[in-house]
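Researcher: Good morning. I'm working through a list of sequences from a screen, and I'd like to move beyond sequence-only analysis. For each chain I'm collecting a predicted structure so we can compare shapes side by side. This is the next one on the list. No need for commentary yet; just the structure.
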Amino acid sequence: MPFINDLRDVQNKTRKDISQSQLIFDETIRRSGFTGASAQIQYDHIYDILAARDAVHTDIVTAGLKEDVKVTGAVTELICKIALDASAPNRYDTLPKTWDWIGDFAIMGSPFNLFVSVKSYKAKERLIVSGTGQNAAPVVGYGLFDDPSEW
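Model: Good morning. Structure tokens for this chain:
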């Protein structure tokens, strides 16, 4: 399988032209059938993209490879950006890493800005901590969780 071979090369650092997260995201979009589609069209078909993400993850596990949690988080952020690009294309930005205790994205608003904290899988406590925000800048959580009973 070409994708798995590419992932092995990236993980082994014999291929350095793309990150693991970008490779996995690109494969997810390719499998969903929405490569090159606008953010709005991708957003309209987000469940197809999420199903493709699950299939990519299954193939990674089946091949005996592991997906680092940081890679999973970065892929989830790229999926979240689909919604941000579709709904607030010129009103959001990525927060600097020194602000990661607040969230991952800031959406400029009036009268208040809004922060978005992105999490993956088992993250209830981390989401609650990063999602505390403040009265003048609330935080919403976006995540791909694998255990509904956690909530």
